[in-house]
Every structure is written in structure tokens, then in C-alpha cells.
Amino acid sequence: xxxxxxxxxxxxxxxxxxxxxxxxxxxxxxxxxxxxxxxxxxxxxxxxxxxxxxxxxxxxxxxxxxxxxxxxxxxxxxxxxxxxxxxxxxxxxxxxxxxxxxxxxxxxxxxxxxxxxxxxxxxxxxxxxxxxxxxxxxxxxxxxxxxxxxxxxxxxxxxxxxxxxxxxxxxxxxxxxxxxxxxxxxxxxxxxxxxxxxxxxxxxxxxxxxxxxxxxxxxxxxxxxxxxxxxxxxxxxxxxxxxxxxxxxxxxxxxxxxxxxxxxxxxx
Length: 268
Prior knowledge:
By secondary structure, the protein is of the alpha/beta class. It has helices spanning 2-8, 12-41, 48-54, 60-69, 81-90, 151-158, 176-179, 181-189, 206-218, 227-243, 255-267; strands spanning 111-121, 124-133, 139-145, 169-172, 193-196.
């Protein structure tokens, strides 16, 4: 034995270890054949649990060990992309219409309405997100973008610049942005209350629709040749709308003047 080990270039202890493993492999082989037969019947999709149910007399740890040893790896079922999309959509939430078309608000910074409109720009579109105070008519936040990503509405909220948002109702339609978990989270963290129009019912959000209509009638946006030029014109219009454009239904005051008028009444 020593001569053979010397010729083979292995130690005597190493030879016996190899012999033990070879003996163990020969002992495993009959069980491997049983497991392999069940594994093949399952078209390579059976894990150790399924094989254990088919071979109840065999220890489950032994099944696991032999499967690892002979690399009998079950095919993992691929996730259905359609189901993943559906699951993602289920994360979006709608909220009841708490505003109920009560547009005659008399306390500023209590009820806001918001929406997105598109503006043609060089054979493409720019997207304008606006938040309006229903009581005063003041535009309290807006944002312009060349894309419809979530940052469009998130930045609009950031642009409001209030000391506190607590208990303010913000009303919108059931669009993708407003049912998105990211938007819902931000609104909740600000302690605002979400309200939504009925599906496909733009009358439920009439104040913001009215604003967009007036803006597109009065704003010379068609002559804009760049995004920056359009942004500048919208910025000028927002300033004009809030501070200069008097409204008949608001005692012929501008939105900012009417806001101060209403706040004085509340404080008085």
C-alpha cells in the first residue's frame, strides 16, 4: 500500500479519505437514482419537498444532501411580468370626493385644487402642474416640465412655501400622479387631506379647469421657441394672475387682494 501511495504521489491518510468518499458515493447511488427518477418526472421543477412527498420513506435531509451533491437544482418559476405590473398598479390608491363641488370656500389655505395641463412647444409638449386655493383663487404653487415624471407634481407641492400644511384639503382627479404611493406619502407627511373627483368627471375639479382655460386664452405661449422662454412667460403670467388680474366674482379684487380680504374677515 505504501508503495502504491508513493507511486501515485498521495499520502496514506489521503488515500483512505478518498476511499471513504468513494464508498459513500456508492452508498448514495441507489438513493440518487430514486431521487433522479422523481426529479425527471417533475421535469426538473421539483424541489426537495415534492420529492419527499413522492419518497416518504427517505429522510428529507438526505434528499437535500444528495440533490446538492449531484446538482439537482429545481427550475425556479419566473415571475409573470403582467402580474408584477398589476401588483404595482394595486399600490395606487384613490380617495373619496370630500370636496363634493363645494367651491364657495371663504377661508384661504384650507382647500386647494390641483391638476396638470399640456402646452404645445415646438412640435412637442411641456406639462404645467398647478395648485390653486379655491377660496381666493390664488395660484399657490406651480411647476413646468418637459416630462410627466412624478417630480412634476412633487416639486409643485414644494413650491407652495407655507409654514404649515396641516388639515389643508388638496383635491385632484384620479390621475396616475395623484394615486401614486410617492405622492400619497408626501401629502400624508405634510398632514394634508386628499380628495378626488369621480372617475372621468372634470366638473368635480371645475376651479382648476377654469384657470387653465383662462390662462390658455390669455397667455401668448404659441410664439415660444424654447422651454426657458415658455417658463419665463408662465412665470410672468402667474405674477399677473395673482397680483394684477381682478376678478368680478371676487369683489373685483385680485386673488392676493381677495385672500387678504378673507383673512381679515376671519381674524376680525
